[in-house]
Amino acid sequence: MKKSVFLGTIAVAGLAAGAVTAQTLDEVQARGELNCGVSTGLAGFSAPDSDGEWQGFDVAVCRAVAAAALGDPSAVNFVPTTGQTRFTALASGEVDMLARNTTWTFTRDVDLRFEFVGINYYDGQGFMIPRELGVTSAMELDGATVCIQTGTTTELNLADFFESNNMDYEPVPVETNAEAQQQYLAGSCDVYTTDSSGLAATRATFEDPSAHVIMPEIISKEPLGPVVRHGDNEWGDLVRWVLVGLIAAEELGVTSDNVMDLAEGTDNPSIERMLGNEGEFGPILGIDQDWMVNVISSVGNYGEIFEENIGEDTPIGLARGLNAQWTDGGLLYAWPFR
Q: Residues 127, 67: contact at Cβ < 8 Å?
């Protein structure tokens, strides 16, 4: 694993990031459209449907930001990015934000000069293999060929895992999830490794998902969240509080079905502030007072977004787990609107 090459890429992207300092909200509003960097295609998270419309858990975050900034959740230009191209796209200003499976790490935060506004999915790296291989644990993967996306945290995690367990492996580098899926199904690698949510999403697209097993081991922490550039605090605040608002709405019981009624007035001060009936939170952010009404009526709250796109009743089939509200034993904890 050539860590020096990986870190060199980071340094170059970091230099580019420092060059973009314009007020992003002003640019987005003048353009009338949000440029949102998403993955090249990951079922349930960000992928075009049969009509070419982007759908998914991360796509909903893009639409939520557009609803807040522009009052229109459809005013989004979705820009597909790979693990290699996503940071260059953000640093150069090609996209205004990233909403894709991107892990919050030290080097990305500090060296690349990006800002993670929060965590919208708590994940961890896992392994998937064909059931017919009869492997039941990642500890049995010594000598395996492993499909691995380049430019990702999974590269270093994989090297660390095998080294710490005195095992060998042969990497099969791929650039996109689609390429990884193709190589894996063709037998070019024994194992595919990425975030566990990504493995579940990929497996759900297979002709026979039951023929593939996701190993029980989770070998890393992967806090995934939206990313903006350093140096534009106003834009970072807006994207951050849209995410917080989605989480808070679920905790407070505000849904896409009842938000318009609640916007008429409630006896809950927290809801009153969040929906713009008290305070001046929208104007402080440079947007409309009823921004969170626009957001929730457009995409729902965090729980609605999760269940519609990746929940247990979808082909992806993910349980809430760590991504449950703090009141239900999870890690989601919204900061107060005060």
A: no
